[in-house]
Each structure stands twice: as C-alpha cells, then as structure tokens.
Amino acid sequence: MTDRLPPRRPAFVGPASMEAHGGTVDPVQEIEVAHETARLLVAAGRGAADPETTARFVGLVEELGLTTVADLWSHRPARTLPGALWRLYALREWVRSDGPQASAEYHAGMTFTAVDHVVAGTAEPISPEELAATVDAIVGGVFSGDLGTALDRAAALCRVVATGRAALTEGATTARRAAALMETAADLSACARLWRRDDLD
Fold this sequence. Notes:
It is built from 11 helices and no strands. It has helices spanning 15-20, 27-48, 51-58, 60-64, 66-73, 81-97, 99-110, 114-120, 128-144, 147-168, 172-196. The radius of gyration is 17 Å and the shape is globular. The N and C termini lie far apart (36 Å). The model is unreliable at 1-15 and 17-22 (pLDDT under 50).
C-alpha cells in the first residue's frame, strides 16, 4: 500500500501579483507563466479525474477572483490553451452574473440555431439556472471529459447566444457584441481542432 497525496492546485502567480510583491515583469516570462499554468491546471484536473477536484477547478474564479484569472490568461491569443481557458471562465462568469439576460438571449437564438443548441447540450426549458449548469458542465468537461468536446459545446453555446442577442435588439452596439461573441465561438472551435491535433498550447 502506498501513500498517495491528493493533487495540488497549481500556484497562480500572475504579472500583477509579481509587481505587487516588488517583482518585475519580463514579457517572455509572462508568456511562459500563462502557458505553463494553463497546462498544469488541465493536467492536474485530468490526472485526478474525480468530481471534487473537477468542481474545484470549475469554480476557480470564485477561489481566485476573475481579475487574477484575467491577469494570467486574458492577454494570450484566443487560439491558445490559456486563451481558450480565459474565454471559458469569462463565459461562465457572465452567465452566472447576468443569468436572466443570458438565458433570454439563448432562448431567442434557439429557433435559428437548432444544431448548435443540440451540441451545446442545454436542457429545456431554458432558465438562468439551467444555462449556468450547462456552462459548469462544459467547463467541467475540460478536466473530466474530452477537452475538444467541451470547447465545441462552448462554441455552440456562444453561437446560440450571439444569434439571440442580434434577434432581440437592434443597433450598432448590439451588433458589435453579437459579432464579438461569434468571433469567440470561432476561436473556441479552432481551439477544439487544435486540441485534437495535439497542437493547442
């Protein structure tokens, strides 16, 4: 019988944290930290493969704060592992903080995006709670399922919401926000393809 230690959550030290403690930020080191923490997080979650660890990593923003997560990953290109993780956590935070609007936009988009609705895997009737549960399941899939599938589901959900957003409200601002979400969907789909080619870093 061997003593097996539980998996440890990687220590997240971003550029802002380094500066706060008197450190300096080397741009190359900043990039390395972003990619290494993303790799470590995914590897730790997938290596543990237990519901408790998955739940902890899904709730990473509650533990660390959105600012810390953004500090780590938001500056990286969208079609990288840290870029993809940032978009997943940002999507989750938006759905949780603005559930009624998110679910209304999702519901409005379902009529026009039936295939994406199926891929996203959101149960009906759509509610803020159901949509939040779907996004939690998607983020959880990064650590306990197929990461490519999780990214595809997130992309599909973004397309449904973007379509509904455009259908509900006219105007240049709404159009830009819908287009930005469509771009996020395209980036997440591209990340899924890169992951399947073992080329998402």
